[in-house]
Design a protein that fits this description.
This is DNA methylase adenine-specific domain-containing protein. It comes from Cellulomonas fimi. The chain has 679 residues and is α/β, with parallel strands linked by helices. The protein has three domains: 170 residues, no CATH class; 246 residues, Rossmann fold; 134 residues, Alpha-Beta Complex (Adenine-n6-DNA-methyltransferase TaqI, Chain A, domain 2). 41% of the residues lie in helices and 13% in strands. It contains 26 helices and 22 strands. The strands form five sheets. It has a nine-stranded mixed beta sheet with strand order 6-5-4-7-8-10-9-11-12, sandwiched between helices. Strands 14-21-18-19 form a four-stranded antiparallel beta sheet. Strands 15-17-16-20 form a four-stranded mixed beta sheet. Helix 5 crosses helix 8, helix 11 packs across helix 12 and helix 15 runs parallel beside helix 17. It is flat and about 80 Å long.
Amino acid sequence: MQKTPTRRLLSLPDVAALARVQRPVASMWRSRSAGTSLPFPEPASRADGQDLFDADDVTSWLVATGRGNNPAVREESALFTFVDGLTDLDSAVAFDGLTALLALRAAAGVQLSGRGRIEVLDLADAVDPQDRWLYRELDALGEDLTSLADHADDVADAAYTVPAAFESLKAHRFRRGIREYTDTTFSPAVLELAARIATELIDPDQRSSATVVDPSGGSDLLVTLGARLTDGDGTTAVLPATGTATVRLAGRRLIAHGWGVTEAGADEANRRGPLDSTLLVAQYPSPAFQVDTEDAILDAIDEAVLTMQVEDRAVIIGPARALTNATRTPSITGSRAALLRTDRVRAVVRLPERLWTSRPRQQLALWVLGPAHAGVAIAERWVMVADLSAVRLDDRVLDDLLTDVVAAIGSRETVRSHAFRFGRIMATSALLASSGDLVGSGLPPQHRQRRSAAEMALDVQRLLDVSRGSTTSSEIRLDVAHHEPGPVNVSTLGQLVEAGAARVLPGHRLSPEHVGASGSVRVIGTEEVLGARPLGSRTIDRLTFTAQYPSGRYTEPGDVVFCATPGVGAIVDSDGLSVVLAPARVLRLNRAAHPGLVPDAVARAVRSASARGGWRSWPVRLVPAAQAGALDAALRAVAAARAETERRLAALDELASTLTDGVTTGSLTLNIPRDSDDR
């Protein structure tokens, strides 16, 4: 079928993303609706071996059938439109052109729709006179420039912001399996860790005008860092002057996110003042630096270090096999030793597995570089090393590791006065003498941050009180009788929903700027459901939620909050009045229609279900109506006892750390109590 210019098309993966369902669900819709009164739309075109569907037909079908979990499919369809369907141009040319249009809109601060081709190119020439990032991509669109400019504005409006629109286009590219992106994607957790460390390395007064150099050619790390820096017009990213398509795309992405972007060596005299310091961040491999051999990565780091001035600092992420792990290859050992001899490597951290999306079994590592030790004898110079292989990167771990790294970057007095939780201070000479693992094996003893002796003593008493608990708080009273087992009544969630015994309500799409820790309404997302984040750690202000999300809803007591991705999980919101964050959803039970539905029992069934087949196929055991009330009360008592026990265990762990920290630093002394008979 001949493509129609400006016709908006969706692939099946795009349909699934638009409807907020898993990929197989869209295929199932297509096959199961065939022959019905509302069949899935027929393909409008085909490209790269996959069927493409008219976006308007698909959105109309989703609205008519009520399928999916996105109430705004019409408004957001532009975000998922298949680039090939907009023009007869090559998909890569169209993609580059759209990203250039979004970057131009961000840089110029104006909408592009309704402008002629020459007017748009003149605007691009004013923004990018040296054609470093976007002019040639726009010129290559030819007569399709004006129609694609209209679409770029539609995408930006649908996403609410230009940065969000750009990330949506990039995610579309990712779904198509473009290797330079899929092979170099790191977990948000490691990017957040590196960005937080990098932010701390910048003087707070300079964060709105910081200069950040990325010798790896632009990566997700730079974008994550940009979200943490103070808003300002002077934040500048410096990328390699290679002129490759990948580096140009990275530049356009940063422009869309509000950065000023320049090439290495360009305007150098104006970029630095005599007292300025520059931050260097790099990710290896990156889309622009695909080679990931140990020697190539270490050579790239060495070249970057050579460009650093005296006060410059750096944060580098790369494979642990290059940066920390034991090796028998002389060239790797020699390259590491040469970098350590510069006296700029101040912290070396090995990270846990599953942070490299395409290679979950390979570990990553992080290096932090700073100014050389001033006035410190060579024999007394140090490097902080840490092994987080067995540690989950939650907020508390990130906070404690951040304080460890900041202390290691400081003076000798800072290092001596800091109680390291994860880090160990090693003599640089000892690391140079070793050809083995730079961070060693196992974790160092964990310590709390240093507090005053009085604070420690008060903490000890508080933790003792918590660990003792109350005499009745965790008591469970049951009167159990036994009988011969009978048949088990099982239903699926899909059957319960069809019978009106349950409703599935979608979660909300909340702007990140509205979610914090000081609001009055608890936010429950997939991280809370899966246990990666404690309940109550994320909140939203009630007035903000009411004003910004007028169609928003709160949970009710007894609602089951569940998710199918990134894992299957479920919890019971006993209190209600929470806000559920998508893609988590609410399962609201109609116990009047089916008394055998017990929230805690349903949540347990969901947690044991398989992700295959979707939530509608998950089996749920139904409780005999006569026993539903008793089981509900018993399970709530068990949950309360479990929560109390976990609280006491956490208090005992903290008490042990506090006592160890206090005694080893001399802040506390312990007096063994004597019985009266021993006097």
